[in-house]
Automatic annotation (TrEMBL):
Transmembrane segments: none annotated. This is ATP-binding protein. It comes from the Bacteria. Residues 20-150 form the AAA domain.
Length: 417
């Protein structure tokens, strides 16, 4: 069963022969290697590239251990280029090679090689691209399966697929397991023995008990505003542990660098500025989050919010959490100021959308809660409420677009309704 990751393949095709290093990043086990070494390689062959003009190296394999030496690898690549034709280097898990930046920058001086690499750590392959590759690094971020990709190979109806996706997430391997125990065991094992172990070893964390508890705290609080100070106070009061703000902040950065979690900043819509305190954190894959909590705490609203956040990121949007100031009066007539939250402020170039996520919108009280923050936004960008279910989009009397989760997830241009 092959999942056609056409959106990512198209990004690679668009960047072909552009003179830059194509760097494919993303969480481990999300399908980077398969995309590069199977899907993209097949495209190259079908487009007429000769097999001996494709240089394929998987550095995480023991058979290529000697090629982790940068000079050996560079020599191997040069020896494989036997004529002046165009060559394509597919270099998988490049972080296994020390000084890989020097190797790749040296290859950039050759006019007849197009370079593609994968890696699993953003400190190596994302934040340092501009400096290390002198502005010639071109990042393609890969995510676990979107719901649309997951649904494309699902043998069943939407409701069953939605329940499955909310519980077990979108790591590609999940679709191959036949029973729930296999899925749960797989997610628990790779979280502890791949993702978290990788973070601890790479960053030389001495007290792994702290970061283990931190992961549980963040998993329990998806979609809730928090900050290192609040978390430190929780450790001090509930667990009698001294876990400093600075260390917590650093450990959160480590988890984000490994693509396990994402940070959403708070944005003051009226003031047009970022508010530093109380970020929100979301898990890149809900299955991993749920497995970490032994599949407890299945709050549908927060899980829906996490899925919408991930989907917006997959579509290439920049996503913040919105805050809008509003004024009212209490029962005595005293004027009050309060902050209302907009789940997501979504930007891409000149486009902007304001999005609320609601599990239930049937009662007038719930409608008032979701609509009130949108009413106080002082501009005319589109305002959208995404609700659980299969309802097709419609506009209410205030011009807000209401759409079901099914329409939002299965239509790539759903925000354009």
């Amino acid at each position: 069963m092959e999942i056609r990751r056409e959106a990512y393949l198209n990004q690679l095709i668009e960047r072909r022969d552009n003179g830059m290093i194509k760097v494919i990043t993303g969480i481990r086990r999300c399908g980077k290697s398969y995309l590069l070494l199977t899907i993209f390689k097949r495209y190259l062959l079908e487009s007429g590239v000769l097999a001996d003009h494709i240089i394929e190296i998987a550095l995480d394999g023991i058979e290529n251990e000697e090629l982790r030496d940068p000079k050996e690898c560079f020599r191997y690549i040069k020896d494989a280029m036997r004529d002046g034709g165009q060559y394509y280097l597919l270099l998988d898990e490049v972080q296994f090679m020390p000084r890989f930046e020097e190797v790749l920058n040296s290859l950039l001086r050759m006019s007849n090689i197009d370079v593609y690499v994968t890696g699993s750590n953003s400190k190596f392959l994302s934040s340092d691209i501009v400096t290390e590759f002198r502005g010639r690094g071109d990042e393609i971020r890969i995510h676990p399966l979107s719901f649309a990709e997951f649904y494309s190979v699902w043998d069943g109806d939407f409701d069953d697929a939605w329940d499955e996706y909310m519980l077990y997430g979108g790591l590609p391997q999940i679709v191959n397991f036949q029973n729930e125990r296999q899925k749960a065991d797989y997610l628990k094992n790779i979280f502890a023995n791949v993702y978290l172990k990788d973070v601890i070893e790479r960053n030389r964390i001495q007290n792994d008990a702290e970061i283990n508890i931190l992961v549980d705290v963040l998993a329990s609080a998806i979609g809730a505003p928090t900050n290192p100070s609040k978390i430190a106070n929780t450790f001090a009061s509930e667990r009698q542990m001294s876990y400093t703000n600075k260390t917590i902040s650093q450990h959160i950065d480590f988890l984000a660098d490994a693509f396990l979690i994402e940070k959403a900043q708070r944005y003051d819509i009226k003031g047009r500025k970022y508010i530093g305190a109380n970020l929100k954190y979301y898990f890149t894959d809900l299955g991993l989050r749920n497995a970490r909590l032994n599949f407890r705490q299945q709050e549908p609203t927060h899980i829906m919010e996490n899925i919408v956040y991930n989907e917006l990121c997959i579509r290439g949007y920049h996503v913040d959490v919105g805050i809008v100031e509003a004024f009212g009066r209490d029962s005595s007539g005293k004027r009050l100021r309060k902050q209302l939250e907009v789940d997501f402020v979504v930007n891409q170039a000149s486009q902007r959308y304001y999005i609320q996520v609601a599990y239930d919108l049937t009662s007038e009280e719930k409608q008032a809660q979701e609509f009130n923050s949108l009413r106080h936004i002082p501009d005319s960008f589109k305002k959208i409420v995404i609700v659980n279910g299969v309802r097709k989009p419609w506009r209410n009397d205030e011009g807000f677009v209401i759409m079901g989760m099914k329409y939002f997830l299965l239509n790539a241009d759903s925000l354009e309704f």
